[in-house]
Amino acid sequence: EKGGYEHFMLKEIHEQPDSLANAIRGRLDFDLGSAVLSGMGTSPRELAEISRVVLIGCGTSLHAGLVGEYAFEDLADIHAEVQQAAEFRYRNPIIANRDLVVAISQSGETADTLAAVREAIQKGAFVMSLCNVVGSTIARETGRGVYLHAGPEISVASTKAFTCQVAVLLMMALKLGRGRRFSREDGYKLAREIESIPELVARVITQDARIARIAEDYAKNEHAFFIGRGPMYPVALEGALKLKEISYIHAEGYHAAELKHGPIALLEQGTPIIALAVDIPGKDKTLGNVEECRARGARILGIVTEGDHETAECMDDYITIPRCHPLVATIPAVVALQLFSYHVARIRGCEIDQPRNLAKSVTVE
Ligand code: F6R
């Protein structure tokens, strides 16, 4: 059932070009330069009235929401914010009737997310879900939303669900963006970029053996820092979560600008810094932060854009992703980090599919 792979996690990482193709298929309208997401069940008028999007989730799904926040603001010109589901529920959230609440959950059973959904419905919000498991509790209780179609995710560490969540959020932002920020022509261009995601991810996966070799040099460390800016900031958080949960290395994700406000005190000779240095706005600033880390003896693994040799040369090691739209780039970038974490954990002899203390769905609050 692992299809010849040593672990479900590796199988699911490698499956991503297919799962993403399934998540995207039939959902792009190139004539309109928009996305067709019928499960959203909204009329054009309702869509035009949405004034704020609140994204809720836990763990990896929360990180997908953080990418979504950039997408809704940047592509759709709609105020967006992300809240950890438990926090949303207990802070007495302010909900107006033109707010759209999007609950993100692979399993559709996470207790905190479900409780937040119930709270939002009770407060009269317009609630939608983004689930993978068809007929799951969150999908049923929200009544509307978009399924990921990623296929069953067995490995405890979420991989293909994350990339499909981001792909669907980009399509939601595209749909909301048409009629606001987006002309048909711009919508068409973005739709083409989204269509190419499976191919972009496949190009990262061809580097698997190289990434496995790079991982050899990072597997002995007990600490690691992931840094990024803009949409690469949530990717840094997700990279750190992946590494810590399966390899038990203490990993932290930081906004690149935050390092010098404290964490830089922890850097020693050889401390790994994984820098999301993809060629998007803000890259030069991130490179400045990389230099600050190098001056303290850190070892730098860069995620860089193909053909950006100058940036690759700033790194001790690097993995490339194809050149693409900055928001789309979050998907291949996270795949590079999934493979890196997987190989580090494998080299360390960890129980990759069933990390200690973790369960696939967290049904207690
Ligand atoms: C991490 C991971 C968890 C889940 C979280 C939410 O790899 O899998 O952080 O993302 O427990 O689960 P869902 O998406 O099922 O609500």
UniProtKB/TrEMBL annotation:
Complex formation: Homodimer.
Record's keyword terms, sorted: Aminotransferase, Cytoplasm, Glutamine amidotransferase, Repeat, Transferase
Protein name, per record: Glutamine--fructose-6-phosphate aminotransferase [isomerizing]
Catalysed conversion reaction: D-fructose 6-phosphate + L-glutamine = D-glucosamine 6-phosphate + L-glutamate
Main location: cytoplasm
Record organism: Luteolibacter yonseiensis
Gene Ontology CC terms, in alphabetical order: cytosol
Lineage: Bacteria, Pseudomonadati, Verrucomicrobiota, Verrucomicrobiia, Verrucomicrobiales
Enzyme Commission number(s) of this protein: 2.6.1.16
Function: Catalyzes the first step in hexosamine metabolism, converting fructose-6P into glucosamine-6P using glutamine as a nitrogen source.
UniProt key word Repeat: yes
